[in-house]
Amino acid sequence: MPTDPANTTPGLPTGREGGHAARPPRLAPALFLLFLGTIWGLNSSIAKLGGMHGVAPIGFSAWQMSGAALLVALACRMKGLPIRFDGAHWRYYLLVGLIGTALPSVNLVNTLRHLPAGVLSLGLSMVPLFSYAMSMALGLERFDRLRALGILVSFAGVLLIVLPKASLPEPEDGKWFLIGLLTPFLYAFSSVAAAKFRPPDATSFPLAGGMLIVLGLVLWPTAIATGQAFLPTLTADVTAIGPASWSVLIAMAISAVAYFCYFEVVRMAGPVIVSLVGYIVACTGILWGMAIFDERHSPYVWAAVAVIFMGLALVNLRHGRMEATRPT
Questions:
Q1: Distance between CA atoms of residues 283 and 261, nearest Å
Q2: Membrane spanning segments where (predicted)?
């Protein structure tokens, strides 16, 4: 998922390549945003499906990043945007990519072995909260009472999931939910690092392409060395392809299509609008989990959804107003 403190969507730097081109009708970016949030919400269920059928976390992430790298690198080639590999870019790729993209991806797949996909999708929506807290701690953002209240409200929502014994299917699942929160925390770190270490005069598509290529170069040897590499079984008869192979193929397709949709929404509507995708991801992630795995959630989880969304609204409301006054 993409990365920028001004954008609060995890995993990639914000794209600003659209410049001052005329904005299309509002329906087009809204449809792209809805589609983006829907397929990103599916990602948690697909990762859970792969883990259930023996795809190891590092191997799954290696395939997922490779699919996105192929599309973004191809797009850079077609647009004539060079992918750079000098010292500043390598530092960016390794710091933002490994810590802010690869590690949270592996942690996501690992914790989904123990948690309902919908619950963890709700946790992923907390990236803006972590991003703001980190930015404020590093002096990149000023203290704002309304946004600070939003963080406290969302934290109360987390407690509704972790503390009541009847909230999650198993008593120990609260521990795994907290471990799962490392994923949005690291995505938030990626947002802050992307702003602080972004090479001068860099554009987002080449940065994304270089980062994903480097991730592939790191994840594949790591997967092989740790025995977590996975080779999907491909045959002309699609009915003979097992769920493990399907999970990897679908994850690659989701990553590739999501990167395209993400940059299209930024180009058409700007970073403030695309930051709303977190709400859609949380909602569709819960719905996908219910549809695919027949997940059913306790009243505590539904109450947590309402409370966390209220906190996110407080953070993003002020954020949207502040961003609207800044030139793109």
A1: 18
A2: 58-78, 90-109, 115-134, 146-164, 176-195, 207-231, 243-265, 272-293, 299-317
